[in-house]
């Protein structure tokens, strides 16, 4: 069995990963700023602020893990958040965890990245019919904090792979997560009376069920495969597909009209989204999962369509 430390262990994914690893007999330490809502018998807990390099170093030194699962990040900023805080958690925090792993002889680090690291660009996946593979560059847009920060973290990891090959890496570029209790910026789009669509853009989504993500992370801890893997179900759904499944109409707008409306709305404080949001809707990263299945050895239990259908049915939509 393996000694594992999980950053963000009290979070949505982290708590499930901690439970799963403990149930499999691993020695697990959960590291987070807050105690878990439901503690797991036999699991240790260390209070860790990833923005504090000394605290991260001390926590990893004390736990002496063979593997670190790094999940701590800000996915959906709360009120009062700032770009500086998000950078401190996402990027500086990842650097501190990586440095501590190297300093204390950790054998492997498993990192939850995101499909957002590829960025939102009109030529995404041009070489593979619109599908992005792990060999495509990460070009996370600076105007989107989460996307940009995931890109910066992946650049840190790439440097570490070149300079410190003794530290194994499993980097998971995760698609849009759905699950029974998932609420995020994406699911909020689907709960509106009409789904917004930019004229001329299919805006396909790839989905992955939350238990599949947890299973992939658990396998990444002890499996033989290392490297970078897209984590998504088979297939994709366009905005029109999603609207049809929900029985909702679409509101189709030219990009320039929506951009102008968002510019005015954000200036007046009527919306948290700026005009750059049109890129998010137009050029979504569509993840090819071939390497996940063939090299990593995991086949998601649900396709993108099946994951969406289950989310919809559980919500009564």
UniProtKB/TrEMBL annotation:
Which InterPro entries does the record cross-reference, listed alphabetically? Answer: Epimerase_deHydtase (IPR001509), Lipid_A_modif_metabolic_enz (IPR050177), NAD(P)-bd_dom_sf (IPR036291)
Pfam families (UniProt xref): Epimerase
Query: What region holds the NAD-dependent epimerase/dehydratase domain?
Result: 4-191
Protein origin, superkingdom: Bacteria
CDD domains assigned: UDP_G4E_3_SDR_e
Where is the secretion signal located? none
UniProt protein name: UDP-glucose 4-epimerase
Q: Which organism is it from?
A: Nocardioides szechwanensis
Lineage of producing organism: Bacteria, Bacillati, Actinomycetota, Actinomycetes, Propionibacteriales
